[in-house]
Amino acid sequence: FFQAEDGIRDYKVTGVQTCALPIYRRLKPPVDRSARRSLDGFTLVEMLVVITIIGLMIGAIVLATGVVGRDHLLEDEANRFAARLGIARERAEIEARPYGAIVRRDEYRFATFDFDRMIWVDSDDTELKRHALPAGVELKLLLEGREVVLRDKIEVPQIGVGSDGEFTAFEVRLARAGDPATENVAPDVDGGLRRTGPGTPA
Hints:
Helix content is 27%, strand content 33%. By secondary structure, it is of the alpha+beta class. A hairpin with a 4-residue loop joins strand 4 and strand 5 (119-122). The termini are far apart.
């Protein structure tokens, strides 16, 4: 491509009439900016955005599972279950009547025995109300070393607390679906409760 510039250049040749010719300069071809951008790749800002998103995802994973394989969500749920069992034990001793835990795969609640009607009724204690497990967390129950099939419709406690504060033999295992690691709650030799699992301090 050529374009004439303003102004002319004179050429004088001996014996020939002087003529004036326009001056031309070479033009660069038009640049396709979209094609150049695709060749240049990511800009620095785009790379920083991607790195920030990856960092946030890694941080969320670390907070959920811990850097040494601990699962804080399971630990919290195991501690909550053990704490509520402890409250049920206190109520049983104070009120001199049995308490129990009705557990399912995705929830649990507490009941007390009504001697007047001779049936189990849900506890009206706000600290012993129904608790739904977080999404992805499952509960398994073992009685005397054998896993129990947890049915949706059950109104009788599988875990009992006598009026003397003694627990029936049980073990509750909390785990994420598809993950073999569990947080476990069971009675100890002293009649209390113990929690075992990856998050249990050595």
